[in-house]
Amino acid sequence: MQMKTCSALALAIAAASLQLAYAADENQAPATEQLGQGLEGSTQGQSKGFIEDSTLTLLSRNVAIHRDFKNNNNAAANFEANGVAQNTNQNYVNEWGQAEMLTFTSGFTQGTVGFGVDAFANGAVRLTGGAGTGGSNVLPASNSHCDALTSTCQGQDAYGLAGGALKARISETELKVGNLQPNSPVFGYSDLYLMPQHFSGGLLTSNEIAGLALQGGHFTSGNAENSTNKDGNLGTTYGATQFDSANFVGGDYSFSDTLSGGLHASKYEDVWQQYYLSLNHSWALGEETALNSAANYYKTDDTGDAKAGKINTDAYSLSLALITGAHTLTLAHQRVNGSTPFDYLGVETGGGKFNPAGSIWLANSSQFADFNAPGEKSYKLQYDLDASSFGAPGLSFMTRYVRGTDADGSHADANGAYAFYNGMQDGKEWERDIQVGYLVQEGPAKDLSVTLRQATYRGNSAISANSGADNDEIRIITAYPLDIL
């Protein structure tokens, strides 16, 4: 299957137009009359105005991370090719920062076509993070106070980023152009540390047909969580291959209250074309018991000039979650078939390194490892608890164990971006994660959240080309949202 040469954005615009035309034909009314009737009850038809529907919020977030490396010698020299900002001589990472994020979201002007503006201004300060202990995604590195042994520098004392987007809406179809946060399984942003990623381009979303959500986009650059450069190069996370632009299109449909699915496709210029298929089902077994199942499948092939080399990879995951009252028990299996890893979107932070974005929707991607090496098979057991049933509303707990085996990169293209996998055979790894979270339910601190995450990762010397060194990691995250308007 080949993607058309026209942009994904144009395809999505055409799909939205067809939806409006379909609505007019079905009701046997003139197109202009039906459009007016449709707008009256639509989201745009109910717009109160640019100012009246505006919101202004301030999110305060504090993130601390401590990562204790156990056997860095196994990590060898793969970090540069792998895009991971760590050095084999480094014993630990210790960074801590505070961010303030102001977001303005306007309403839409009234009328058949509504117009609006979104804007943000983010700033952060370093609380901890010195030479020799940097390298996480919490803080951008400065060019001073660097450690020669570990090649890491003190995090910047303060940094910030501001941007925005113009938007237009007709009926249930919306177009945005500017600094955006697309959320797609083939092109999506990440928000795991102090400040979130943004991407520069255009995004079209449409919900004209009940149950069907369409989206399409064209993007050319972005910024990583620890970068203030909005024009950062797009690339691949593991292959560290830069590309100039990405197009994507996709849709998700709810067949019923218990069954939904999605189909998405993307093209990263001269690197790959990628397709994603998902199915989700919920089966009620009783008043407080249900069995949820999910299937996710990716197909990735090289395209154009194949700047990353030969790619022909299938990756999928299957999961079953048994929910009974406050308890959820999940079993999942994930597999990567092919000579290259399942790779996904990244954003350059400098020096040819690319921070991962949020375009991996596989069940076993965890706090530290993605379990996505060539040929890797992995299994997950996870338990979640919502403590509100025990008189502690807002308190939650999660623990999981993921184990991967049979990673083999010996057949990767020796002239491609994944050639560093050629020495990988019989790669094995495991990760154990524990998370405790609390959300304040009432009072002056209502909606304040505190999350403690602990991860333990171990792998043999072969798998280090994919995931890095053994480590124990702790993250503490607090967040407090404030509605100003």
Please characterize this protein's 3D structure.
With 485 residues, this protein is mainly beta. It is built from four helices and 24 strands. It has an 18-stranded antiparallel barrel.
Outline type: globular
CATH superfamily: Porin
Proportion of β residues? over 45%
What is the multimeric organization of the chains shown? single chain
The CA-CA distance between the termini, in Å, is 48 Å
CA radius of gyration is 23 Å
Assigned CATH architecture = Beta Barrel
List the helices and strands and how they pair.
Blueprint: H1 8-26, H2 31-40, E1 55-69, H3 79-82, E2 92-105, E3 113-128, E4 141-147, E5 152-155, E6 158-170, E7 173-180, E8 198-206, E9 212-223, E10 234-236, E11 242-243, E12 246-254, E13 259-268, E14 272-284, E15 289-302, E16 312-324, E17 327-337, E18 345-350, E19 353-356, E20 377-386, E21 395-407, E22 427-439, E23 449-459, H4 464-467, E24 471-483
Antiparallel strand pairs: 1-2, 1-24, 2-3, 3-6, 4-5, 6-7, 7-8, 8-9, 9-12, 10-11, 10-18, 12-13, 13-14, 14-15, 15-16, 16-17, 17-20, 18-19, 20-21, 21-22, 22-23, 23-24
Helix pairs in contact: 1-2
